[in-house]
Structure formats: structure tokens, C-alpha cells
Amino acid sequence: MRQNLLWDILRDYTQIIVGAVITALGLNLFLIPNRIAAGGVSGLATVIHFLFGIPVGVMMLVFNVPLFVLSTRALGPHFGVRTLVGMGVLSMAVDLLPVPALTSDLLLATVYGGLVTGLGMGLVFRAQGTTGGTDLAASLLSHYLPISVGQALLATDFFVITLAGIVFNAELAMYALLTLFLSSRVVDIVQEGLGYARAAMIVTNKPDQVAQAILYKMERGVTALQARGMYSGEQREVLYSVVSRPELARLKEIVHDLDPRAFIIIHEVHEVLGEGFKEPKVRPPVSGKAGARGGGGNSS
Questions:
Q1: Are residues 56 and 74 in the same domain?
Q2: How many H helices and E strands in the chain?
Q3: What span, in angstroms and rounded, lies between the C-alpha atoms of 81 and 56?
Q4: Which of 138, 117, 231, 93 is nearest to 180 (CA)?
Q5: pTM of the full predicted structure?
Q6: For every one of its 300 residues, what pLDDT tens digit does the chain have, with 9 covering 90 and above?
Q7: 197-203 and 223-228: which strand pairing?
Q8: Are 183 and 117 in contact (CB under 8 A)?
Q9: Among 40, 104, 117, 189, which is 20 to 30 Å from 201 by CA?
């Protein structure tokens, strides 16, 4: 048990370091040389770098360390060693990785910068880490002001991108917004995965027959939910089942054969843990608390 725990911790810290390095590569190869300040501490550090020539990594540490200290004092010591590791590795990698810009095309830099930094930050978040950034600033703002953390994140990113638009130009600010959107989407995909499964809610007049067919013909679980039609006032059971993407056509065929008038609602499922899908992994508790946003074009 202890050996497994140590292995999980080692794996998490390795993933945080790899993710921070990938994020730094996204910044150095695409965003920083093209003056795309896509929000967060990295964006603010990029603006200051082009104004005063101060290295981006140094400025990220200058901003992140006080934010970390203030957040720890105000909100408690739950940010942990993982945040310090993520902050330190990202800041050092940005200044120490001698990589030239891959492109001067702003659209290419925006797209690939958002994809690479989003991939790096997604890996950091999956390991329950963070690189500091404006998630710490947002937590502070939410603590002292009557606003939510999400509103504070939006305000801080908007401030940085607006500042970049004033210092550089409006076109670069618009590219920065696009980078922020792309990196956020990639972070979500890395953490949640692609929609590889489908969940179906089935409203049918033959719930028992449909449920038995799904259980024994498809060997998938079914849950009956008690519901009431607000128009008819009738009480009925709504069936809920999760199937893999290739099984979806078979599910619809089974339901239609038994009840052609059945009403089926299908939506994507990003992750399913349990029998028949992916086994859940029990992770050790950590002192750090992974932020909802982080480095690169996201919030560091």
C-alpha cells in the first residue's frame, strides 16, 4: 500500500513537471514571440517583457510568489507543494528553454499556442496541481469582494487582455481571446477526455420490456427514474442507461422495435467510472488544491 502511494505521488509530480514544461514550450514557441498575451500572469508578464525587457519567467515568479503568500494567509495553507513545484518549473522553463519561435503567422501562433499550453495545463490539473496564476488572484478577489471565483477569473483575464490591447494593438488582443478560448477547451478535454460514451434517457410506455432488452441483449445497466409528465400529469418511469459510442445504434434499434413512440434523449458522457467502463483510481489525499485555471494561455 505504501509503495503504491509513493508511486502515485511520484507519477503526479512527474506529470506536473512535464505539463509545466509543455506549457512553457507553448509560450516560447508561439505566444511570447508574437506578443499574444492570452490572460493570466503569463500574459501580464509578456506585456511587461516587451515594455521593459524583463524576462517573462522572472516576472511570473515576481507575481506568483506574493499571490501564493497572500492566498495562504487569507485562505489557509491548502495550496501545497504542488503549486510551488508547478510555479517554479513553469517560470524557470520559460526563461531557460532556448527555443526559437516556430512561426510569425499570428493565426498559427494563436491556434498552436492555445493547443500546446492547454495540453500542458491539462496535464498539470490532472495531477491535482496548479501553476498559481490568476486562479490565486481570483480566490483572493472572491474572498474580499462579493463576487464568485468564476467572475473574478473573468475580470482578471479581461484586465490582462485589455492591457495587452492598449500596449500592443486591438488585433493582438483579439488573437489573445481566441488563444484563451482554445487553451480552456483543451484543458477540459485533457481532464475529462473526449466524449467516448453516450447516456440515454428513454421515455417509453414499455419500460420493463425495454429495460430487460438493454440488460440482457446489450448487457448494459439501466436505472429507472420516477417521473411525472407535467402536461398529462401521469406518473411513469424514465430509463437511464450509459453505453459506448458503437453501441448507440443498437440501443436505438432495440427501443424502436419495442416502442416506436418512445422518446429518447442522448447526450455525450466524457468519463464513466465503474463496471463495464473504466475502473476508478483511488488517489492519495494531497495538501495542495488544484486550481480551476492555470498557466500558459489560461491563467498563470
A1: yes
A2: 10, 4
A3: 22
A4: 117
A5: 0.75
A6: 677 788 888 999 999 999 999 999 999 999 999 999 988 899 999 999 999 999 999 999 999 998 888 877 776 666 678 888 999 999 999 999 989 999 999 999 999 999 999 999 889 888 878 888 777 777 677 778 887 666 777 788 889 999 999 999 999 999 999 999 999 889 888 877 766 688 999 999 999 999 999 999 998 999 999 998 888 888 889 999 999 877 888 999 999 999 999 999 998 887 777 766 666 665 544 444 433 344 444 545
A7: unpaired
A8: yes
A9: 189
- Out of 192, 215, 236, pick the residue that ends a domain: 192
Q: Is the dihedral of CA 31, 35, 36, 39 positive or negative?
A: positive
237 forms bridges with which residues in the sheet?
226
Q: Are residues 111 and 241 in the same domain?
A: no
Q: For residue 280, report the phi and psi dihedrals to the nearest 5 degrees.
A: -70, 145
- 117 and 217 in a single domain? The answer is no
Whether 248 is in a domain gets the answer yes
